[in-house]
Design brief:
By secondary structure, the protein is mainly β. The chain contains no helices and 30 strands. β28 and β29 form a beta hairpin.
Length: 336
């Protein structure tokens, strides 16, 4: 592991332009504290697969095929990339921040999970019990995280001790894993097209969500914990009801418009902080954002020159970040 201090990467202010089907705000009436309505963050040397805001919204982390994690300042025009976390030996596929924003946890194709101290800019833990590519990582209560891997397991770790606290074994590769809102369940999904809900108390499957017809590539729990969003290579983005004691179908609605292609990237999905909007990665180079109550597409935002692999909502302002296979990250201000 080594810390690489990068040359300063600057955020480029993009020219304002109207976009059919929705728009990044181009008017004087601004809705955020971004330096400009649209900003381009560049510096990665290969496809960017994941990007996440920290809990304060002041910073962002991105993970790439170039094996690195970039840390960015969200506000300000100059020197937005303030650190590069180097040490993974293969692609960084997913990441998340801990609750106080002091650490970034990363999932890599080098079969490890990395825990990085943002304040000192170095890796403090390497969790290496997986025997296959680690596709997904999610945050739980306290110091717990969950990782999903091609070795067909989801592991719950205590990052303080590097110890595996629990292990959930599936029949097929796991491409996405996350905790329920109350931390009592672990959701896993993979190449068998199903989502399994595991009870952490007895480590058994309590229900299965069926409806996708191809590999599930991304998964996210809603802010209120009542719903689960899943993205699939069958081009479907589905909202499920994951509340306890649901006797009828758990299918809530499907959002239409997102695309997958032969690249078969693990395109993620996400909720806005208020739970009113969702988004998902899409291979058509477009950022798609839907209204949850109606299911209608609110924004259809071109700009990337490659697959959009993840879209992240800012935790406090009407701002999104999108990362793509074109090596770029865009920050955009949504209309107030």
């Amino acid at each position: 592991m080594s810390l690489v201090l990068p040359p300063a990467k600057r955020a480029r202010v993009e020219e304002d332009e109207e976009v059919a089907g929705g728009e990044i705000s181009t008017h004087v009436n601004r809705s955020s504290q971004l330096a400009a309505p649209t900003m381009l963050f560049s510096g990665h040397q290969a496809a960017v697969y994941t990007c996440k805001f920290d809990p304060t919204g002041q910073y962002m982390a991105s993970g790439s095929h170039d094996k690195s994690i970039f840390l960015w300042k969200v506000y300000g025009e100059d020197d937005c990339n303030f650190n590069v976390l180097a040490g993974h030996k293969n692609v960084v596929l997913d990441l998340c921040w801990n609750r106080d924003g002091s650490k970034v946890i990363s999932a890599s194709a080098d079969k490890s999970v990395g825990v990085w101290d943002v304040n000192v800019g170095r890796r403090t833990r390497t969790l290496s019990k997986h025997s296959g590519v680690v596709n997904s990582v999610g945050l739980g209560e306290g110091s717990l995280i969950v990782s999903g891997s091609d070795d067909c397991t989801a592991k719950v770790w205590d990052v303080r001790s590097r110890r595996v606290e629990q292990e959930f074994e599936a029949k097929y590769q796991i491409t996405a894993a996350c905790f329920s809102h109350d931390n009592e369940l672990i959701f896993t999904a993979g190449i068998d097209n199903e989502i399994k809900a595991w009870d952490r108390r007895n480590e058994s499957v309590v229900f299965v969500l069926e409806g996708h017809k191809d590999t599930i590539t991304g998964m996210a729990v809603s802010p209120n914990g009542a719903s689960l969003l899943t993205n699939s290579m069958d081009k479907s983005l589905i909202q499920w009801d994951v509340r306890p004691f649901v006797n009828e179908s758990r299918f809530s609605k499907q959002f239409f418009g997102g695309q997958h292609n032969m690249e078969k990237n693990l395109l993620k999905c996400s909720w806005s902080a208020d739970g009113e909007m969702v988004s998902a990665g899409s291979s058509d180079h477009v950022v798609h954002i839907w209204d949850v109550p109606t299911g209608e597409e609110l924004y259809h935002l071109p700009g990337h020159a490659g697959s959009v692999n993840e879209v992240a909502f800012h935790p406090k302002e009407p701002v999104i970040a999108s990362c793509g296979s074109d090596k770029q990250i865009y920050l955009g201000e949504l209309n107030a």
